[in-house]
Task: structure prediction
Amino acid sequence: MKFFIDTANIEQIKSAAEMGVLDGVTTNPSLAAKETAPYRELLEEICRIVPGPVSAEVLATDYDGMMKEAGELAKIADNIVIKIPTILEGLKAIKSLSSDGIKTNATLVFQPSQALLVAKAGATFVSPFIGRLDDISQSGMELIEQIVTIYNNYTFATEVLVASVRHPMHVVEAALIGADVITMPYNVIAKLIKHPLTDIGLEKFISDYKKAKQNA
Ligand code: G3P
Result:
């Protein structure tokens, strides 16, 4: 399973990269809006830090506008992936971009039919937003199961990129289902390693050893 970080914050990206388990980055306009530097500058820096796929989202909602923005974003670096909203105009853009050899990430996916369409159009990644479904009492993880089944049924090459992740159990459940990629906020990546019994056990190992040596 590939791990992406879902942020445009350079410090968080550097820190996650240092952990040695980071495969890529996803950004979106809301995440970019939290930072002071312009989106393009952030993307340039992110691509220098992380060699894996870096998703950069278009703001246009019409085919021509998306294609124009995608062309500009794709020039930033070879590892840029163009994030396109899953609407009719976006589907056309995904088809054209994938035919041109440009990698795409179909975003804002909330139902299996959308995932089926973007795979047929040649999307590199599909991004189902599981946390936002959970927020409205629909099962985000059930959507992941359905998409994985559909893609396996027809051996689609599109990778399932689990997005809108809120906590470590989302990561474990997505891994059990066999999702290809998960993108997480920094705080979720940091929580994956944590267990109170690990900390208590470590403290006891060290204090037992020190006590024994002091009394020796
Ligand atoms: O990258 C998009 C997605 O992960 C957004 O998550 O937390 O805004 O629902 P969230």
